[in-house]
Specification:
about 130 residues, mainly alpha, 2 domains, elongated
């Protein structure tokens, strides 16, 4: 495929923000614009931007405390089959009794689902812990 074919087909490039991709002088996007696709747009991937923002926000005590709570509650119930069965029996009729989700350390934001499930099952979790004190 020659440069004229690329110029006709390439409209936009989404990149992760690395200087190799989006560098102002020598990045891939600049090279493509100069050589083949002068009207091409270069955008910073929104998922990567959100991840960078979340890294900053996760340094605040409130967010880090929620992360800690989600991980500890998951570990307490899901690493012990006995405690997990007690939780399942206790929640019948109170809440949905859905399995607690684990917050995984990946590049992408993964705290929303586990924290929402923790809050949905909060009454059951407190009840089980109160019963087992």
């Amino acid at each position: 495929m020659d440069d004229s074919m690329i110029a006709k087909k390439l409209v936009c490039v989404g990149a992760d923000g690395a200087s190799v991709m989006e560098g102002q002088r020598n990045g891939l996007c600049v090279r493509l614009q100069l050589s083949a696709a002068p009207y091409m747009l270069s955008i910073h991937c929104m998922a990567h931007r959100m991840n960078l923002a979340f890294k900053i926000v996760s340094k605040f005590p409130l967010v880090s405390n929620v992360e800690y709570l989600v991980r500890e509650v998951h570990a307490y119930f899901c690493r012990s089959p006995k405690r997990f069965l007690e939780f399942q029996k206790f929640v019948e009729g109170i809440t949905d009794g859905k399995k607690l989700l684990k917050d995984v350390d990946t590049r992408w934001i993964s705290l929303k689902g586990p924290s929402q499930r923790l809050f949905d099952e909060y009454a059951s979790l407190v009840g089980v812990m109160y019963e087992n004190r």
